[in-house]
Design brief:
- One of its GO terms (molecular function) is glutamate 5-kinase activity.
- It comes from Salvelinus namaycush (Lake trout).
- Bifunctional enzyme that converts glutamate to glutamate 5-semialdehyde, an intermediate in the biosynthesis of proline, ornithine and arginine.
- There is one protein chain.
- This protein is of the alpha/beta class.
- It has 25 helices and 24 strands.
- Helix 5 (102-125) crosses helix 6, helix 14 (383-400) runs antiparallel to helix 18 and helix 21 (579-591) packs parallel to helix 22 (613-624).
- The N and C termini lie far apart (93 Å).
């Protein structure tokens, strides 16, 4: 009867789970279809392969399950973990939980009983005034476990019931693994529970288990002493041929030295043999294993064919999605792998780039210019190799059929493109003379005390770009000119082209010994994972679609993002506009390159222009150019038969489409732009200088133009040589960002033993604060 009830429960689970889980997980369930086949025996070489894990063991450490006061369970954390396990179970995966917590739950229960008993006795014999003097005896762990096991299991059952998921409890000891018959029985029971979509919840039987042997250790693939839940989870994972073991603890993962020490760094991927290079800290105050036990258990499981991740299960910022993030292949915790990559990790690449970048910043401007000129020469000298690599990328992209024609055009390189790139790079080389180390301000604070504000590099830049391999040498040249270290993450569609261009860039850097200053990230790092390196990267610059920019802005964890998520550019035609200028500017702004971020998306017309020759010519021109027109609400109200009414006035079409709306005045146009624009580029067409000046003064956008196409919002057209992007931010760089936008400043004070005390009322020094003229630092 019990098995029948469990089977019925498991059949009902999948019908009701999606209605019970939160929307985030409901989407994950609806979007994920997991294969029913299972091929165990080999651990994953990369995190991305964890998405295919079918049989998963989740180990919950004492610090995860237990409250900070060591008495009772952390119910909020436990609930979020249960939800994630239920979601993964519903995807068709087979989930098992190895849990601690019985001792803590029992300790809470026994303390409550003892306090209640003592209070009753003291109330009867001594009066209420003696209650404060009660003391609790030391509670033996086995007794606590015996008292807590039933309550812990009842709690799990109640939580999983909310997701129509059935559970079963299994208590084990060492003998259950070392006795062959018991081991077979345990294996059979677990397989039968998994077959019925039931989540087994396993724990050591702490009520009867003997104390752990201090020196007992893992002894090869076939023998493991079950002395804590870490070793139990490892043994269980190997025994059941699990694909993945997730061990949740109270630290982010494995560090190269005890967490909290100054030089401690989180290890992203841990390989067998690396354990000699790390130092372990103290174990959790509520657990019996410690990190050393976790690592030994993890390596034993890895040797047995199970992938392992150790991660933090107590951080409230990540607990609600830590398990699902790991299964999705995201960079969470420490991943154990037997396959060591040939090249450095992205963290190592970042550190190499930072060190070489500091040397790059100290070079003389002429030396940085020489590097850029050498890169320009290599683009033309090695054009055959570059174009051959690009041809392979084009053929692969065309056969895959995933790229649109505009993106294929961006991916393509030609001899003329390479020649244009070389010319642009030489312009950057010339402009780099006045970049790093330029004195912007010099002040004589007092006699023999001078203060300077000078330009310096930002640090380490991360540039993420799509389908545009020509972006690589442009951005590299700007980074070299500004003395910045650079990490490049290109789209896989341009992998061959990016590889050869990066190789040439490093060849150019080698002439002054700074080859490592620019790194190409070619590992399987997800963009979201790169955006989490807030201690290593100083600025992220996305180059690509508005969706890419929005995704990066959301994913960036404490790292500034330079860019714009949308390019909703307006052209306002005033009542005093010249017909010829208006037609030319509208046509160029919309039709020259519709997919560009500086293309016109909304055309604002003064009300007085309706039913005039200018209006008719504008409409005729747009029809000839095959521009699809969407009518704004006011424009639609003036027409008997109007085009399709726009769904939103805040739309970036990125194609031969635009919205037309009517405004009553220049001020109405400004108000419309502020309400619906993206602060990118906005244009006024008028012959009235006063109106134009008011428009340019009031519109709060990165670029504001008078009688000029919006397509001029470009670093090359501004004479910046090249740009790393266009920023709509309010701080640092704004608009097309070239060399100057990649610099910041620092203050340098030169004195002769000055102290602040000398400038007090009783002191002998007085502040002068005299501005000193700044000569050119590097004369031509």
């Amino acid at each position: 009867m019990m098995l029948q009830r469990l089977a019925l429960c498991s059949s009902l689970r999948s019908r009701s789970l999606q209605a019970n889980v939160c929307p985030r997980f409901a989407r994950a369930v609806s979007q994920t279809k997991f294969p029913v086949t299972h091929s165990p025996g080999k651990s994953a070489a990369h995190r991305s392969e964890l998405r295919q894990a079918k049989r998963i063991v989740v180990k919950l450490g004492s610090a995860v399950v237990t409250r900070g006061d060591e008495c009772g369970l952390a119910l909020g954390r436990l609930a979020s973990i249960v939800e994630q396990v239920a979601v993964l179970q519903n995807q068709g995966r087979e989930m098992m939980i190895v849990t601690s917590g019985a001792v803590a739950f029992g300790r809470q229960r026994l303390r409550h009983e003892i306090l209640l008993s003592q209070s009753v006795r003291q109330a009867l014999h001594s009066g209420q005034n003696q209650l404060k003097e009660m003391s609790l005896p030391v509670l033996e762990a086995r007794a606590c476990a015996a008292a807590g096991q039933s309550g812990l299991m009842a709690l799990y059952e109640a939580m999983f019931t909310q997701y129509s998921t059935c559970t079963a409890q299994i208590l084990v000891t060492n003998l259950d693994f070392h006795d062959e018959q018991k081991r077979r029985n345990l294996n059979s029971t677990l397989h039968e529970l998994l077959r019925m979509n039931i989540v087994p919840i396993i724990n050591t039987n702490d009520a009867v288990v003997p104390p752990p042997v201090p020196n007992s250790d893992l002894q090869g693939v076939n023998v493991i002493h079950i002395k804590d839940n870490d070793s139990l989870a490892a043994r269980l994972a190997v025994e059941m041929k699990a694909d993945l073991l997730i061990a949740l603890s109270d630290v982010e993962g494995l560090y190269d030295s005890p967490p909290g020490t100054d030089d401690a760094k989180l290890i992203d991927i841990f390989y067998p043999g690396d354990q000699q290079s790390i130092r372990y800290g103290s174990k959790s105050k509520v657990g019996i294993g410690g990190m050393e036990a976790k690592v030994k258990s993890a390596l034993w499981a890895l040797q047995g064919g199970t992938s392992v991740v150790i991660a933090n299960g107590t951080d409230p910022k990540v607990t609600g999605h830590v398990i699902t993030d790991i299964v999705e292949g995201k960079k969470v915790g420490t991943f154990f792998s037997e396959v060591k990559p040939a090249g450095p990790t992205v963290e190592q690449q970042t550190e190499m780039a930072r060190q070489a970048g500091r040397t790059l910043a100290t070079l003389h401007p002429d030396e940085r210019g020489e590097i850029i000129c050498r890169l320009a020469d290599l683009l033309t000298e090695k054009k055959d190799e570059i174009l051959s690599a690009n041809k392979r990328d084009m053929e692969t992209a065309a056969s895959a059929g995933r790229l649109s024609q505009p993106l294929l055009a961006r991916l393509s390189l030609s001899t003329s493109k390479l020649n244009s790139l070389a010319i642009g790079l030489r312009q950057i080389a010339v402009s780099s003379r006045d970049s790093v180390g330029q004195v912007l301000r010099r002040t004589r604070v007092a006699n023999n005390l001078e203060l300077e504000q000078i330009t310096v590099p930002i640090g380490v830049l991360l540039v993420i770009f799509e389908s545009r391999p020509d972006c690589l040498p442009q951005v590299s040249a700007l980074a070299i000119a500004s003395g910045n270290a650079l990490l490049l993450k290109g789209g896989k569609e341009a992998a061959n082209t990016n590889r050869i261009l990066h190789q040439l860039t490093q060849d150019a850097l080698s002439i002054h010994g700074v080859k490592d200053a620019i790194q190409l990230v070619s590992t399987r790092e997800e963009v979201e994972d790169l955006c989490r390196l807030d201690k290593m990267i100083d600025l992220i610059i996305p180059r690509g679609s508005s969706q890419l920019v929005r995704d990066i802005q959301r994913a960036a964890k404490g790292i500034p993002v330079l860019g714009h998520s949308e390019g909703i550019c307006h052209v306002y035609i005033d009542s005093e506009a010249c017909i010829e200028k208006a037609i030319d500017i509208i046509k160029d702004s919309k039709c020259d390159y519709p997919a560009a971020c500086n293309a016109m998306e909304t055309l604002l017309l003064h009300r007085d222009l309706l039913r005039t020759p200018l209006f008719d010519q504008i409409i005729d021109m747009l029809r000839v150019e095959q521009v699809k027109i969407h009518a704004g609400p006011r424009f639609a109200s003036y027409l008997t038969f109007s085009p399709s009414e726009v769904k939103s006035l805040r739309t970036e079409y990125g194609d031969l489409e635009c919205c037309i709306e009517v405004v009553d005045s220049m001020q109405d146009a400004v108000d419309h732009i502020h309400k619906y624009g993206s602060s990118h580029t906005d244009v006024i067409v008028t012959d009235n200088e006063k109106t134009a000046e008011q428009f340019m003064q009031q519109v709060d956008s990165a670029c504001v133009f008078w009688n000029a196409s919006s397509r001029f919002a470009d670093g090359y057209r501004f004479g910046l040589g090249a740009e790393v992007g266009i920023s709509t931010a309010r701080i640092h760089a704004r608009g097309p960002v070239g060399l100057e936008g990649l610099l910041t400043t620092k203050w340098v004070l030169r004195g002769e033993g000055h102290t602040v005390a000398e400038f007090s009322e009783a002191g002998s020094m007085k502040y002068l604060h005299e501005n000193i003229p700044v000569p050119q630092r590097f004369p031509s």
